[in-house]
Structure formats: structure tokens, C-alpha cells
Amino acid sequence: MEKSTDTFGLLVRTLRRFVSLSFILAGMILLVRLHEMIILSNYHNYPPGSFSSLLIGIKYDIVLYLRVSAVLMIPFLLLGLFSQKAARIFFISASVVLVLGDMLLLKYFSVAGVPLGSDLFAYSIEEINQTVQSSGEMNVWPFIFMALFLAYMVRVFIKHVYLKLKPWMLIVISAAMFASLAPLDILKPQPSDFENEFSLFAATNKLNFFSESVLEHYVFDEQFDKQTYTFKTTVATADGAFTYLDEDYPFLHNETTPDVLGKYFQPLETKPNIVFVIVESLGRAYSGEDAYLGSFTPFLDSLMDKSLYWENNLSTSGRTFGVLPSTLASVPFGNRGFTELGEDMPDHLSLMSILKTQAGYTGSFTYGGEAHFDNMDVFLKRQGVDRIIDNAGFGEGYEKMPASATSGFSWGFGDKEIFRRYIEEIKTDTANPRVDVILTLAMHSPFVVENQRYYLAKFNERLAELKLPEKTKAFNRNYEKQFSTVLYFDDALRYFFSEFRKLPSFNNTIFVITGDHRMPEIPISTQLDRFHVPLVIYSPLLKKAAKFSSLVTHFDVTPSLLAMMDADSIISRPKAAAWIGHGLDDEEDFRVANAYPLMRNKNEILDFIDGERMLANKIIYQVYENMDIETVDEPEKEKELEAELNNFLLKNNHACKNNKLIPDSLKVYMYQGQ
């Protein structure tokens, strides 16, 4: 009995020490928030109004403190029964690691504009190193500050005085710690409480966000993989229905994509060239008529007036990794993005491979950076690309973008040089019809381009021309470096077309221009805004121009191009396909006629659109004509969309892991190698 009493007394004393230490941890977490409020938010030009969001974020820092304490309490008490010193060392070590993680994640957010989640683990060490170097934030001072802060933290822990808390206080505090683990909405920031997505993320504790994302991906996904998908024979689309053919090939359906493009084009009497200009970070927020930040692409805007232009087009991913598979092949995502499957990509059809096998097309890819980043080269070689020109193969006479002043790193060649290199390449190769892909680079951190002073001045001129509210102008001035690269790209595009017009092939070329995703370094307004990019199809072969407000995605591009070329007997398209897209919708008024999954980052397929409802990270929104979104109270519809998204994920996993996109009978349309 006496031993039992002694053990209980030891537990109480150990718990008192634990709570005392945990209060120091809480103070350190709050100091990190204070650092963000006073220093980082000013140094990195957080948008006006961010201070109130950061202040609200203290609530979620306290939630993190309580959750961490709940996780650390049991091992601390068990160690304390044997050694108080070991328990203290354990707590101090764990606290230092956690606070360091919080600071590093905060540093990432302050530069990238979005918090880091489980997508971190989808990149190789080489890719992470390249991205960090490109940010221009690789100076030593932040790390010196972190080291000094952590050293101070350890000293406070060692020198601290234990608080003489009453037993009832220990019970209340401990209960609060374990209660914080409950999955309650009140314990995390809700989108409806914030003006925009950046404000939401500013309030969010970055370590809590990261932990939940990792837990969701690596724990809950394992349980999810044990489920099986529901196979539906028919699914309604805007122009009829997909008729699915085989339960073991969950995306395989009759290929009946309507030819919506043909009516706008002259009859294709010869095989047209197709050139994709995929623009790094080209968002609708700052490009095109009624762009809510004002349009900083005057030349592209003038081209839109002569083109088929979808103002409400969505990229399928929030990063570059998704644009090539979605636009050129309309394939699902796989687990981390289709290209991340590398040599294990399932057999699939694509625009390039079908044009190559059916009509003798050649293809190229021109990019100013490393083509192996995100396995872009691996994906394109599967399509039969004949030539890849990237950072390593530009040749002489081309100048790279200026290196970052802090890291000395340059992604590679700027947009004008990319376009100039491509023009030189095709001048000497006109024998075969072509399908070429150009990926630009300049609108990317560290946002350093040649002749930048000129473009910074041009930004101020453009801002003065635009009839924007003063509040918007003040917001834009915080991001003059980013906007200067948008203007640089637009000038480069003007140069591209002026040079291309001199080539004989110009009159028989179809240009597809789109963004890979919206730029996160200019704070994003909504969960949909990150995907909102323009889609422009321009060609001298067009009979008329048209602007469409119907919502489409990159998934829809390849099915529509192939449908038009099939209708004009350029190719004979397959009778079945596994496209995710339904084909472009040429409805001039706003509508969302189909359903689409969207992938924010590698490892994160959290968004789904069906009609005018969007599910974003388990919250349902109404999608409006101006592409704004607003939360709605529709629990039944929310469950329906969650079920649709989950079913897509199950089909996606099955098809990509088991090579079940297309059967052997369709492999004649695939490039088979030399």
C-alpha cells in the first residue's frame, strides 16, 4: 500500500513537471508566431489585412501546443517513473525538433504563399535542393536566427522553475490536452471565417497543417486502399454519356467525344501542326478581360480576341507536375502525379502517340530548365517525342536568366530564349507535320529576368493604365517583381508570334496556349483560384473567334483535338479511350456541365467539381459565374461529392498500380519505340 502511494505521488510530481515544461513549449510556439507577425509578414510582403489573421492564428497555435503535449505526456510519465532526468531530456529534445519544424515550415510558407504538406515526400532530394536554391532564400541569416532561438529555448528549459500547480489544475490542463485531439471543426480554421485562402493559411499553424496532411496520406490512405470502387456502366456528360466497358479497366469508355472545334475551323485539308505553349504560373487572376488583379498580359489579351478562348478553364493540378499528362493525355493522377510513376506509368493513349502512329507526326519539347524535373522527359519519351531541348542542350548563343543574388542559382533560360531556340529548331525541319510542346520558365521564384528594371517600370506603367480600385493597386505593388515577370513573358510571346509568322508553316499551325497553374507567390484568393488559368486556341485556320464562359479543364483538350482531326480524316481515332476529360464545352454562357477531380499538390487529391458545386478538402462550395466560391450548407450534397471523389481515388489507384488504363487491343495507338 505504501509503495502504491509512493508511485502515485511520483506520478503527480512527474505530471506537475511535465505541465511546467509544456508551458515553456507553449511560450516558444507563441514566440514563433510573434516572429511571423512582426518580421516575416513585413519582409515577405504579406497582403494588407494579414495581421488580423495572424492574430487569430494564436488560437490554433494553442491547439498545436495542447495536441503536442497530449502526445508527449504518456511517454514522459513512463520515463519519469524510472528517471526524471531522462524524461526531461526526452521532452526538451522533442520540443526543440518540433519548434524547429514549425520555424522551417513557416519559412516555406512565407516564401511560397501556401503551406507545405505531405507533398514534400513526393519530391527527390535533388528536386528539393533545386527548388530551395531557386527560391533565392538560401542566405545564412535565417538559419543563424533559428540556431540562436533554439539555443535560448534549451537554456530556458534547463534553467526553468517548476510550478506548484494544484491537483485539480493538473487534471483540467491534462483533460484539455487530450480533448484537443478530437476531430472538431472548432479546432481548425474554417474557410468561411476568412476573406481569402491566404488569410486562412496565415492563421493556420503550419506544423499542425503538415502533421495532419502526413497523417491523412500515410495512415488513412492505407485503410482507404483496402476498399473497392463502384463500377457504373454509364455516367452522364454534357453531350450524352460515357459508356464504360470493363470493370477491370475503370476509366475505359466508348470514345464518342463530340467535335466541337470543327465548326470554328476551316476544313483541315492537310495535317496541321500543333504547338502547345504552356506558361509557367499563368493565372486568370492577372491575365485576360476582367482579371480581378488586372491583366498584365496585353499581347495575349489581343490574341484572345482572335482565338477560341475559354475564360473559365482549370488546370488539373496546383503545380507543374500535372500539366503534361492532363493536357496531352487526359490521364488520371496516380498516387503522386502521373509522371512520378516513372517507368511504371501504365500504358495509355495520348495526343502525341496517336498523331505519331496514325499520321506520321514528329514531336519536340523545348524547356529552359531540367526536363527530368518531375519526370517530364520520361513521360514525353513514352509518347514518342523525337527531340527534347532543355537546359543541358540549348547550345551556344543563348543566355540564361540572371542568377539569384543570394543563392547564385538560375533555373535556366528565359522565355524569349526558349521561344528563340524553338524557332531555330523548326526552321530546318518542315518535312513532317509536328506536335510540339514549349514550357516557359520565367514566372517562377526567384522571379529574376533579364532587363528587370525595364519590366519593373513597365509594371508601374501598366498599373497606372488599368482601372483598378486603389485597394487592388496597393495589393499589386507588394508583388511588383512577380508581375514584372508576367509582363516579360507577354513580351516574349509577342516576339514568338512575330517570328513564327515569318515561317511557311505558320498558316497551317494550331497554337494551344494555357497556364500550368496559378502563381501561389501572389496570394491566392480561393481554393478554386489556384487552378484558374486561361485556355486559348489560336490559328490562321480559324474561321471565327469566340469566347466561352463554360467551365473546362486541361483534361478536355486532347479528346477535342483528336475528335476534330478524326472528323476531318487526318486520323482514325480509337473506338475506346480512358480519357478523364469529356471534351471542350463551347457553351458561351457559364455552366459546369461535367465532373472533374483536381490535385493540389503531389500526394494531395482533395478537390472535386461536379456541376456548380466544389468539394475542397471536405468542405462544399457553390461555384459562381465569376469563378468565386462560397461555402454552402448542403450536407447531403457534400456526402455525395465525397463519395464521388473517393470512388475516383479508388479507380485511380487500381488503374495506375495495376496497368489497367487501356487493354492490349488499344496499344496499336501507342508509340512502340524505335
UniProtKB/TrEMBL annotation:
Name assigned to this protein: Uncharacterized sulfatase
The Sulfatase N-terminal domain, residue ranges: 272-566
Superkingdom field: Bacteria
Topology in the lipid bilayer: Multi-pass membrane protein
Family matches, as PANTHER family: LIPOTEICHOIC ACID SYNTHASE, PHOSPHOGLYCEROL TRANSFERASE I
Keyword annotations of the record: Cell membrane, Membrane, Transmembrane, Transmembrane helix
Predominant subcellular localization, coarse grouping: membrane
Entry-linked InterPro entries: Alkaline_phosphatase_core_sf, OpgB/LTA_synthase_biosynth, Sulfatase_N
